[in-house]
Amino acid sequence: MRPSDLLQPRPEGLYCPPGDFFIDPVRPVDRALITHGHSDHARSGHAKVLATRQTLDIMALRYGENFAGVRQAAALGETIDVGGVSVTFYPAGHVLGSAQIAVEKGGLRIVASGDYKRVPDKTCAPFELVPCDVFITEATFALPVFRHPPALEEIGRLLKSVAQFPERAHLVGAYALGKAQRVMKELRQAGYDRPIHIHGALAKLSAYYQAEGIDLGPLEPATVEAGRKGDFAGAVVIGPPSAFADRWARRFPDPVSCFASGWMRIRQRAKQRGVELPLIISDHCDWDELCETITGTGAGEVWVTHGREEALVRWCELQGISARPQHLVGYEDEGD
Ligand SMILES: [Zn+2]
After folding, report:
1. Do 137 and 294 contact (CB within 8 A), yes or no?
2. Alpha carbon of 28 to ligand 1 centroid (Å)
3. In what order do the strands lie in the sheet with 256-260?
4. C-alpha dihedral, 135 to 140 to 144 to 146, nearest 10°
5. What does the radius of gyration of the chain's CA atoms come to, in whole angstroms?
6. Of 17, 57, 18, 19, nearest to 37 (Cα)?
7. pLDDT band at 196 (very low <50, low <70, confident <90, very high)
């Protein structure tokens, strides 16, 4: 069996003809296997969805209980037969519930890794390296310029600024699923034990993380009532990036605008967004992690999807690994 007989790009997403299923389809399909809950990968309206229990829970939280006709939970490491194709979910280390999906038939194993990272993150199960014949990798930060510093260092810079400006509120922009909870957890690991104030858009998902046993410490709503602006002096407030454009952000006392994203490596991006304190915290691999992972899987062939495909394809070729870009459309990760 050739790899392209087992998985192939279609307008809806990666399709497996023998198993008749799609991985992370961007349009409603009959059977979808979903790697994780970010909205560009997990869409509502499929007839059947197979995903980890946590991803199914997250989809229900975001889209409502009727997000799919039938849902089936895949336990990590358990092999499931889907139309004669063996399918196994392995942790991807990206956000809570995130998984890579190994697809196997006739002695050929392809791993679709979805989004993933390798650095420690106490808010989800760590990435598991799965040996395979073909490895499908994202390429969000696939340029040598992208090297993410340790998250603890970035959180240290935030806490230093909080200590330095006790009269100002620190407003941290972080994506609602994954990044926001990771910033909370990293703050706790750094010893910050005061309440963290959160925008309403983060409440449901953060409560879900806590219910799943990820202790984020005391969280309080970041609602400003008339005349109580001073309450947030010296506070850390976390909100989704979209909230920074609206009136919500202007309610806080002389805020320090912070943004937690791998893109903050690019000074120009921080400047464009008016970010005073850029925090380079990413839930994606940096260049070194990507290269290391590709080598580690032992894959003889690599398919590079969404992001900066060209540099990574070139790097693979230089290593003697056959590689090609797969221009899948519709993936603009909300969690970078
Ligand atoms: Zn993602």
Report:
1. yes
2. 19
3. 219-221, 196-198, 236-239, 170-173, 256-260, 277-279
4. -130
5. 20
6. 57
7. very high
User: What confidence tens digit (pLDDT) does each residue in 215-245 have?
Assistant: 999 999 998 665 566 779 999 999 999 888 7
The amino acid at residue 229 is K
Give residue 167 CA to ligand 1 midpoint distance, Å: 35
Task: Characterize 113-141 residue by residue with b for buried, 16 or more Cβ atoms within 10 angstroms of its Cβ, and e for exposed.
Answer: bbbbbbbebebbbebeebebbbbbbbbbb
Structure token pair of residue 293: 């992972």
C-alpha distances in angstroms, 297 versus 76, 111, 133, 137, 272? 18, 9, 8, 11, 38
* Segment holding 89, helix H or strand E: strand 85-91
The three-point CA angle 278-182-152 to 5° equals: 60
Report CA dihedral (72, 78, 79, 81) to the nearest 10 degrees.
-20
**38 CA to centre of ligand 1 in angstroms:** 5
**How much is the pTM?**
0.95
Q: Residue 331 C-alpha to ligand 1 middle, in angstroms?
A: 9
C-alpha of residue 240 to centroid of ligand 1, in Å: 15
- CA 105-25-211 angle, 5° bins: 95
Q: What confidence tier does 334 reach under pLDDT thresholds 50, 70, 90? A: low
Which 8-state DSSP code applies to residue 221? Answer: E
Q: How far is the CA of 178 from the centre of ligand 1 (A)?
A: 9
Give the helix/strand (H/E) hosting 30. none
